[in-house]
Write a structure and sequence with these properties.
heterodimer; A: 157 residues; alpha+beta; B: 407 residues; Rieske Iron-sulfur Protein; Naphthalene 1,2-dioxygenase Alpha Subunit, Chain A, domain 1; 2 domains; 10 helices; globular
């Protein structure tokens, strides 16, 4: 079924703001995009297609999202860089109470003093719900195509 | 033009930097090590459970196919058609009944034997292969294989010692502790490419004390830290190492007080991540084995993995992670392993730091082939220790490396 146009634009706003917050480095705000009960996974297309459960990054609670934020911003050691998410069109299905969305992404990474390269390409597969009047990700799977990650993923996708 | 400096300094507590950057040295490594008398790790049996299942991997620069035979054995075949050299298999994994090269349809069985060649007898009396063309002499190159408790190893040399002798009793003890004969359950793969020499990855695991300084996450939560009860053990060649350690508390003590990165107040919002359960004999919560030349077999709490090191010239390597559990794991245990897998891999809470620092090491040494690294922590000897405030495993490793490389 087609979702109402207003809802469609609200979904797109959520998905756009999410990547802006990451690209702007405001990771403290990252967990706020998720529902109180949530699942976030970065999983390779290879594992996803084969039905293998291993995720490169897995958070299955708000607490784990916050711990990751802490690690990314304070604990992990990595050089300065810029991330730029480029999104494709948002394709939505499902119902108003349980929206399904799929959106392609590419992340360009620019390391200080080096060329810009593609760090990761893939697709978001989202389950979106309304919580406290705001749309939130109940589930956000980042299914990535990149078979060989250039070094590491140091921020959320 | 300057000749590469290819002599080792006259002491075992220094490591010359040209071994990480010199193309000629890299090519000698391929011959002497990866294509020489070693057992290369190529995968786990649980990746190819059924007859015909295969995975593609690499030994040195060479692509190989690891395939489950119809008689349940495991074959490792060089991924190069005997006809014109085409890389036959492109997929990372899959299943086939026979192996056919798409170019001229030379077809092989799962043992690599050539079954047939199109137009073998010619067409309408024209062409065809010569009378004395022998199918048996034109199969895929086949490697010697050894399978132990689910781990698959292959060698290209006739001079490789039997697997047991190659690993040595002590290392084999640790190997069998983790791969103990239970059927393994594949959880998934992840892969990353790191712009550093392949030996730096092995060193990173053998260098026990970096974890206490670089990895704030380990340090803070006591997962792997110099003040933990631990051991560094080598085989007699010094090339294989087993590090083992017992998880410590988040407390201020003589060790943690010296770590700038230690934070006694840091707490996890969701402690589920570190909810480890005891599952192996003994008290060790971490065992990291570097099995020469190309794999790390690791247990960190309940997350189990192999890290296969695939060199890509002197200045880069790929790291192929395979995470696994056991067929007997219940759902709760599988979830625990998957949650703890957050520590490792290309986005690992601790391994992010390693990928980054190894690349910076390579960048630091690249322009300085004639300089040397210092490995003096814990003295200048190469004997086992019952602590990890030491670089002993690096000294032992390079003692073995020099022998293998004739340096």
């Amino acid at each position: 079924m087609t979702l109402p146009p207003l809802l469609q634009s609200e979904i797109e706003k959520l998905i756009n703001e999410y990547v802006l917050v990451i690209d702007d480095g405001e990771l403290d705000r990252w967990p706020q995009f998720f529902a109180s009960v949530c699942l976030y996974k970065i999983i390779s297309k290879e594992n996803f297609d084969a039905g293998l459960p291993l995720a490169m990054l897995l958070c299955d609670s708000q607490g784990m999202l916050k711990d990751r934020t802490e690690a990314f911003t304070k604990l992990n050691v990595f050089g300065p860089r810029t991330w730029r998410h480029i999104l494709g069109a948002v394709h939505t299905t499902g119902t108003e109470s349980r929206i399904l969305a799929r959106t392609n992404f590419v992340i360009f990474e620019t390391l200080a003093g080096k060329d810009t390269h593609i760090q990761c390409a893939g697709e978001y597969r989202d389950v979106i719900v309304r919580e406290d009047k705001t749309l939130k990700f109940r589930e956000r799977l980042c299914v990535y195509d990149t078979t060989m990650i250039p070094n590491s993923i140091v921020w959320p996708i | 033009m300057a000749e590469p400096l290819c002599t080792w300094p006259d002491r075992n507590d220094r490591v010359p930097y040209w071994i990480y950057t010199d193309q000629g040295n890299y090519e000698r490594e391929l011959e002497n090590i990866f294509y020489g008398p070693v057992w290369n790790y190529v995968g786990l049996e649980c990746e190819i459970p059924k007859p015909g299942d295969y995975k593609r991997t690499q030994i040195g620069d060479q692509s190989v196919i690891v395939v489950r035979d119809i008689d349940d054995g495991v074959n490792v075949l060089v991924n190069r058609c005997a006809h014109r050299g085409v890389k036959i298999c492109e997929q990372d994994s899959g299943s086939f009944n026979e192996i056919m090269c798409p170019y001229h349809q030379w077809t092989y069985d799962l043992k690599g034997n050539l079954l047939g060649v199109p137009f073998h007898r010619g067409v309408s009396g024209n062409g065809g292969m010569p009378e004395n063309f022998n199918l048996q002499e034109n199969g895929l190159d086949k490697l010697e294989v050894h399978v132990r408790n689910g781990g698959i190893f292959a060698t290209m040399s006739d001079a490789t010692p039997p697997f047991q002798d190659y690993m040595g009793k002590r290392i084999l003890g640790y190997y069998d502790r983790q791969l103990d004969g239970r059927i393994l359950k594949l959880l998934g793969h992840s892969r990353q490419r790191i712009g550093a020499n392949w030996k730096l990855m092995l060193e990173n695991i053998k260098d026990t004390h970096h974890a206490s300084l670089l990895h704030v996450f380990f340090v803070t939560f006591g997962l792997f830290r110099v003040d933990n009860e631990s051991r560094v053990e080598m085989d007699q060649t010094g090339l294989h190492t087993a590090l083992s350690s017992i998880r410590g508390a988040q407390e201020l003590n003589d060790g943690t007080a010296q770590m700038r990165s230690f934070d006694s107040k840091l707490n996890l919002n969701d402690p589920n991540l570190l909810d480890a359960v005891h599952e192996f004999p003994g008290d060790q919560t971490v065992v990291m084995q570097t099995l020469w030349p190309n794999v790390i077999l690791q247990q960190q709490s309940n997350t189990l993995a192999t890290r296969q090191i695939v060199p890509q010239g002197p200045n880069a390597f790929e790291l192929h992670w395979t995470f696994f559990g056991y067929e007997t794991d219940d759902e709760e245990m599988t979830e625990r392993r998957l949650r703890q897998a957050n520590l490792m891999g290309p986005a690992g809470l601790v391994s992010i730091d390693d990928g980054q620092i190894l690349e910076r090491t390579q960048e630091g040494i690249r322009a300085h082939p004639n300089c040397e690294g210092v490995v003096e922590l814990g003295g200048r000897e190469t004997d086992d220790t019952d602590h990890m405030v030491t670089e002993v495993a690096l000294r032992a490793f390079y003692k073995g490396y020099r022998k293998v490389m004739g340096l």
